[in-house]
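Narrative progress, year one. The postdoctoral researcher (J.K.) led the effort to move from monomer predictions toward full complexes, under supervision of the PI. The following entry was the first complex the group processed end to end, covering 906 residues in total.
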Amino acid sequence: MLVEIADKEFAEQRLQEVTESLTRGMYVQARRQLHNLPAWDVALLLESSPPKARAIIWQLVDADEHGDILEELSEEVQKSIIRQMAPEKLAAATEGMDTDDLAYVLRGLPEQVYQEVLKSMDEQDRHRAEQALSYAEETAGSMMNTDTITLRPDVTIDVVLRYLRLKGELPEATDKLYVVSREDKFIGEIGITRLLTVDPSRLVSDVMDQEVQGIPADMDETEVAKLFERQDWISAPVIDEDNRLLGRITIDDVVDIIREDAQHSMLSMAGLDDDEDTFAPVWTSAKRRSVWLGVNLITALLAAMVSSLFEDILAQMAILAILNTIVPSMGGIAGSQTLTLVIRGMALGHIGASNQRWLIGKELAIGALNGVIWALLIAAVVAIWKQDLLIGAIIAFAMMANLLAAGLAGVTVPLILKKFDIDPALAGGVILTTVTDVVGIFAFLGTATLLLS
Amino acid sequence: MLVEIADKEFAEQRLQEVTESLTRGMYVQARRQLHNLPAWDVALLLESSPPKARAIIWQLVDADEHGDILEELSEEVQKSIIRQMAPEKLAAATEGMDTDDLAYVLRGLPEQVYQEVLKSMDEQDRHRAEQALSYAEETAGSMMNTDTITLRPDVTIDVVLRYLRLKGELPEATDKLYVVSREDKFIGEIGITRLLTVDPSRLVSDVMDQEVQGIPADMDETEVAKLFERQDWISAPVIDEDNRLLGRITIDDVVDIIREDAQHSMLSMAGLDDDEDTFAPVWTSAKRRSVWLGVNLITALLAAMVSSLFEDILAQMAILAILNTIVPSMGGIAGSQTLTLVIRGMALGHIGASNQRWLIGKELAIGALNGVIWALLIAAVVAIWKQDLLIGAIIAFAMMANLLAAGLAGVTVPLILKKFDIDPALAGGVILTTVTDVVGIFAFLGTATLLLS
């Protein structure tokens, strides 16, 4: 298929055309247009469509394209589609799928459907599926494919070359061949480019790279991704606890993990799921998001209760009520800047026991520095706006205190959460806001009560 | 070098050891320990260290490791280090660097130092550097390397194989050889694995894949990354406007772009720079972050001014002052959930003219649904806590109104910003908060004024 690089708009235009045919109800035309789209584009179209349109598009797509398209879909959308497919159609669609994709699809099925799909598969696929499902989700085992090419150490490169020529096509992203013993133990690897440049009369065991270790099948996928990034790998072997070669992981699957992991923090900080589907039905989305709103309502009520402690002075001076939101809001912003940096730093492995103290010191210093600047400014604004120097001084003090608290909480909250194995990206923001709200209100209204009443 | 996979803690332990030697001032020992660390780990150590420690580590590292380490560093940290290096040392460090990394380093230099470094380079490197710098930042041209292997169409595969064997080692991540005409025009490519499996007596022109187009040198790096993800490429050719082959892009550089792009939104939403260095000096960090705090102070003041319009009723009833923060806060949370999803959807190319209206409808429906739930709940809480049914009803109405506003603004604000070519991740949050603050306060205090005064 011709790759349309020079004309990016061309691809967008084709997608637009399908959408138009669909909205006009011209399904025959839409079917033909869909037939001409690569699987990747159909997947994009499905992910960009509301639930009803998704069901229609899926019915218009050629059944023998189903497998390729399913492979390209994100988890949420994939799930919503396979739940509507008949088991035997699903079994047909998964035929010839990469092992890792196959496991991914099967994991999304309810137990009963899963059994039916398994029954509809041929012997070989069923075996492959059962094996793939034996590894835990989000591990090296669940990412791997079994399409490795293996060599014995005691043959010559010439034999290998003839074997490959006989074989015809090699699996995609094959940059290395793996050398295994008679017991299938992984003992080394040879790069494809090395095969081309080395003297063909040499033995595999002479030429292979023995300093490589396989990836244990139970390694976490995020760790696998880090190794790939660090070593600039294109593929890597996966082994079991006895060092037996099980399969290989390729860079294209790793890229997905890297993008997902990087997005994870952003979504978590808004209380959203990694696989949150922008076009999910209203009810599904509302239910998910309400949890987060509930948590935040408790925070807001807590802040209101703190304000409530100062009801007397608020009743005396409306100006305090008006200014009461400024200091908590600035603290929340400053704190979330620190929090975001610390969460990213943790993900990159930059923050450890050796530099935590330095980091707290630094963030406190930034809080102090910015505290002084914005305290002076807000004091000036209030003094001019409300003609009240004392209240200006009070809000300046509160600002200073809260920006210091924000810096401290911004570093310590995620560190403490991590110690308790709680995801700082998910819970950090709420706790931080609670801290900056409470400190901000206490510092402002408390000082005001002391000095003004 | 042995890749220590099985023992992840081993790597961490070694890093810990260096840190300990450094803090104890045992520099001879630290130098030896650093010497045994791979470049990637030294880079990690530098990125995890405060400015002073960075300078010390850099002096302890072998000078001939400098180049490899610089390549692994993030932009900010790299800049802070090369600014302190003497031009001739820098020239030595960049010797043999990949073209894209070389351009990256040189771009970070002040004009005068840059000229001096250029002078200290040998002829070949200088030429390479000048060529690499001729492409704009963040384009395919600035990402590419010039280490391509090119073939003529009219030779046999056998000749190619003999040529490669003569050449010895091939550049890393070489999965394809490129076929060019006598005028250096790109006409096709052959996968390395294909070379191994095809009949050696055939001509390159018979075997090559002609349906591939090169990537134009001025294509944006984010577009390049999308193409790689979409096509599962490991490398791809880069061409100029006359279709002449300039070089190639490899997946390891693309992975960096994918991670950076995915992190970009998260950092922007907190008003942080993409290259924000967690361990930068206090002054640098404070200066950068204060801009964002300033913008948010304006938002907070705006909210205070809106409250100020209702000074009369606030003076009469302190309870309104206490509850005044709840509705804006919930609106901010709901709005930022929608905003986050829309920003991600835009980055993935899911949101276009065809589904915007559906999305606004959906988010309004979610706002209504969650609005009802949390309106009823907050009404009940207020009715019980403050024994005031009417104020419960007022806050319920304001909650409803603000969650609808949040849903609407969460979709429309980023869409409008994008139309004006403003980064929604950077500016979206501030504008959204302003909307939910203003609507929240107006709805609550305004209704209270109408009904209670």
